[in-house]
């Protein structure tokens, strides 16, 4: 089973389309939150993920759009109610068992952190190993990660929408997870 993983799309429908094309045939698609922006909505992104029957989490930008100040006015002007209802019902985390492996999907961290930006260099990164899972998938930081913590695999696909800063500019990325092998790799778009 091959799983495509995206995060932090931030309304970038074109980048999502390129990522999906480059993934090739996949069995499942996971989107780890921030599929829209806190002040912009993309029906194209929402409908693409819905059509792919993706497992989609609600991230902090999605939450801000739906529940922040002035959200009702923004929603009425830019989105169909059916798309909004779908987005509102996305969970902030998901626990799945696939191919005999326990997966935990979160947007930022497995523990309550008020959306802290926890990268491998952060002193709290080892806390990912506390999760009751074989594989933890997270987004939010825009920094791609494939790291083992003991027997656990921790994967962050990076960001499809904004990318991560490098010496040559911002690089967008996604991840592919081979569940039977328990291995993941990052694929850069730029």
UniProtKB/TrEMBL annotation:
Keyword Nucleotidyltransferase assigned:
no
Quote the InterPro entries the UniProt record gives: Ap4A_hydrolase, Calcineurin-like_PHP_lpxH, Metallo-depent_PP-like, Phosphodiesterase_MJ0936/Vps29
Q: Which Gene3D superfamilies match?
A: 3.60.21.10
What keywords is this UniProt entry annotated with? Metal-binding
**Cofactor(s) needed:** a divalent metal cation
By sequence similarity, the record places it as follows: Belongs to the metallophosphoesterase superfamily. YfcE family.
Question: What is the protein name given in its UniProt record?
Answer: Phosphoesterase
């Amino acid at each position: 089973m091959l799983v495509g993983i995206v995060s932090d799309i931030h309304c970038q429908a074109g980048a999502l389309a390129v990522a999906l094309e480059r993934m090739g045939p996949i069995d499942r698609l996971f989107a780890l939150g921030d599929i829209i922006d806190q002040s912009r909505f993309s029906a194209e992104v929402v409908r693409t993920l819905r059509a792919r029957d993706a497992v989609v989490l609600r991230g902090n930008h999605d939450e801000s759009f739906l529940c922040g100040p002035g959200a009702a006015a923004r929603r009425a002007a830019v989105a169909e109610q059916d798309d909004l209802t779908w987005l509102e019902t996305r969970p902030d985390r998901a626990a799945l068992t696939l191919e005999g492996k326990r997966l935990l999907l979160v947007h930022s961290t497995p523990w309550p952190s008020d959306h802290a930006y926890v990268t491998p260099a952060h002193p709290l990164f080892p806390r990912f190993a506390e999760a009751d899972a074989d594989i933890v998938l997270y987004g939010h930081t825009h920094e791609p990660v494939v790291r083992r913590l003991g027997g656990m695999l921790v994967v962050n696909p990076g960001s499809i929408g904004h990318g991560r800063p490098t010496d040559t500019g911002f690089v967008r990325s996604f991840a592919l997870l081979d569940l039977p092998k328990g291995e993941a790799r990052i694929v850069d778009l730029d």
